[in-house]
Amino acid sequence: MKVLSSCNTSKTLNAGNMESLIECQSEAEAKQCPLLVPSEIEEGLCRLTDGTKKRKKVISWPFALRRTSTNGDCSGQLDSGLKIPLFGQPLAIICEDDERLPQPVQNLLAILYREGPSTEGIFRKAANEKARKELKEDLNKGVNVDLESKSVHLLAVVLKDFLRNIPSKLLSADLYERWILALEKPTKQEKIEGLKEVADKLPRPNLLLLKHLLALLHHISQSAQTNRMDSNNLAICVGPNMLSPDTSNTLPLEVQKEMNDKVC
Mean of the pLDDT values across residues 83-109? Predict the structure, then answer.
């Protein structure tokens, strides 16, 4: 999807939920993609522009890392405010009044926004599987976790895990065909307008997370010379976690692979 890959080519959007493909994109594959022109986020989704000069931010970063306790070392304690699992829930259930993302998600975004630009292979490199499962379990239980003590790559993998487990995905499987149709419009401007129209149909919590996720990815892509993750590489590693059709589980492996490529 152009919004995710910031790409000025005629790529189309699709999806698949093949975890092995999503998690195991090779470094060689990512490096094959040229550095692409980044996009700016505007009016709920994005505005694609030409040129490579540095541009002002359209969305100021809203999240500061906030601990859930003022009692010094609170690591390992339960957060009494988190009463349901964090993973695998509709965003409308875990977002406060549809206006605020869960605090653990805010903390993940804040740390990745700060550390991601200087971390080579962010969102591409794998993390220790045991550590991933343990961190996911702690967050699901509402345990206060010192995320700043964790590996940046581990936090990126956990964020992708969170995205992948959103029911119907962040971009909504019900809107899958509309995303596809928007990207099939003949001109770039028509594509952009079509994407905005589809984005406006997302539930408010989904749109809220989408805005901040795109802001994070755009911010990281601006330091691609350092982290080697331009917008296209980020799309390869993150995009398939964000959308898949309801029928993706029943499709042949080759079809799912093709759909993942189109999402990117």
Answer: 91
